[in-house]
């Protein structure tokens, strides 16, 4: 009996063990199934994420390039592949070269998307790190105004640092207006076109100085940096480029910046200009170049002065700071014009110029002299080295 009980106990234990093993097996199967489901879900999530990533990269126009690691700072800028730039410029063909500046060479190029671009290949000095370069490019690309050249994007591959701008049909002021205007370029710069260019440039600068955050001081405003579109509307180029250059690069002046005014009223106008307006513009120019920066008007005030929203007649204009820096400066003999009206710009004393359209005295104590014919006068200052 005892032997039988032991036997049946053993059998029951065996049976229980069998059931436990069966249960364990079921649990393992269950766990396996759950794991598979989770893996399937995970792979779906991964695929979805990869799909989104692919989609966003292809929609933002960001191509794989050296800038890949910098996607976080390039979302607003089109990154061009070097290959595309080469194709656009026919491998930087000399025939497509439209200019050479302190920052490098500029080529006209036809991009794949059909846009015509001015492609600026930055010189070796400007080759900063990819991250710094792209950060600056992002800043520049956000700055948009009707009087600023639009940046389409850039190329940053290997040592290449290339900026891609909107190409403007009518070239820069130095190659058109200053290079003979109508006769050479076929463009006619009558007085109202010139006045419009002047106001447009002032508006572009006012925007850079006062509306862009942080403010941008161009530091290299000159005729070659004013590009004209097909309607002869001016666009300022190279703004923000100072930020891309190392401080030791001498191209951009860090103290006194700007290019002096040589002929104040162009004889090419043949005397057909609004003399009163010309004199007002001269006064505004003198206001802007006063020795003390505190006395100079802001660019938004300059726009108001140019457009006559604000009057400057009563202003005292103090001596320009730049002039004393030049070795030898003289005022050219006035050029006779056919203008009927006499407009005279008047220097009252060496430290304070009071420019008035109706009277004239002169002071030569600083080596300046001015002259005017009794009937018609075009005032022009020239710098000689
Ligand atoms: N967006 C543009 N559209 C058409 N032509 C352009 C454009 N940008 C530049 N150019 C041409 O390329 C020339 C060279 O321009 P860039 O700004 O590089 O040099 P720069 O102004 O002559 O000299 P710097 O670099 O010393 O200021 C300009 O004078 C102009 O003729």
TrEMBL record:
Residues 92-385 form the Protein kinase domain. Pfam families: Pkinase. Residues 1-25, 337-373 are annotated as: Disordered. ATP binds at residue 120. PROSITE patterns: PROTEIN_KINASE_ATP, PROTEIN_KINASE_DOM, PROTEIN_KINASE_ST. It comes from the Eukaryota. InterPro entries: CR_Ser/Thr_kinase, Kinase-like_dom_sf, Prot_kinase_dom, Protein_kinase_ATP_BS, Ser/Thr_kinase_AS. Keywords: ATP-binding, Kinase, Nucleotide-binding, Serine/threonine-protein kinase, Transferase. Residues 345-373 have a biased composition (Polar residues). The keyword Nucleotide-binding applies. Gene3D superfamilies: Phosphorylase Kinase, domain 1, Transferase(Phosphotransferase) domain 1. Belongs to the protein kinase superfamily. This is Protein kinase domain-containing protein. It comes from Brassica napus (Rape).
């Amino acid at each position: 009996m005892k032997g039988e009980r032991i036997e049946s106990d053993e059998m029951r234990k065996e049976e229980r063990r069998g059931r436990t093993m069966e249960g364990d097996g079921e649990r393992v199967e269950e766990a396996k199934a759950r794991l598979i489901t989770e893996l399937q879900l995970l792979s779906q999530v991964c695929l979805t994420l990869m799909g989104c990533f692919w989609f966003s990269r292809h929609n933002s126009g960001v191509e794989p390039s050296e800038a890949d690691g910098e996607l976080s700072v390039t979302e607003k800028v089109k990154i061009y592949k070097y290959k595309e730039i080469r194709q656009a410029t026919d491998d930087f063909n000399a025939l497509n070269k439209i200019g050479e500046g302190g920052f490098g060479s500029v080529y006209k190029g036809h991009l794949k998307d059909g846009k015509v671009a001015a492609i600026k290949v930055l010189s070796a000095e400007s080759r900063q790190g990819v991250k710094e370069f792209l950060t600056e490019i992002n800043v520049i690309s956000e700055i948009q105004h009707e009087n600023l050249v639009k940046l389409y994007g850039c190329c940053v591959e290997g040592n290449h640092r290339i900026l891609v701008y909107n190409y403007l049909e009518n070239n820069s002021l130095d190659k058109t207006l200053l290079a003979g205007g109508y006769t050479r370029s076929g463009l006619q710069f009558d007085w109202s076109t010139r006045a419009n260019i002047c106001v447009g440039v002032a508006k572009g600068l006012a925007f850079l100085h006062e509306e862009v955050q942080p403010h941008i001081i161009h530091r290299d405003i000159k005729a070659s940096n004013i590009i004209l579109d097909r309607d002869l509307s001016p666009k300022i180029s190279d703004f923000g480029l100072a930020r891309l250059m190392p401080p030791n690069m001498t191209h951009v002046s860090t103290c006194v910046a700007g290019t002096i005014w040589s002929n104040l009223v162009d004889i090419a106008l043949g005397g057909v200009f609004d003399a009163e307006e010309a004199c007002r513009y001269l006064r505004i120019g003198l206001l802007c170049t006063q020795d003390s920066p505190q006395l100079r008007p802001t660019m938004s005030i300059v726009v108001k002065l140019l457009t006559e929203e604000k009057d400057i007649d009563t202003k005292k204009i103090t001596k320009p700071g730049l002039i004393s820096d030049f070795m030898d400066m003289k005022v050219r003999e006035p050029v006779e014009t056919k203008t009927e009206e006499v407009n005279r710009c008047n220097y009252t004393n060496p430290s304070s110029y009071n420019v008035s359209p109706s009277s004239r005295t002169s002071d030569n104590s600083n080596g300046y002299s001015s002259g005017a014919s009794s009937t018609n006068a075009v005032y022009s200052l020239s710098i000689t080295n």
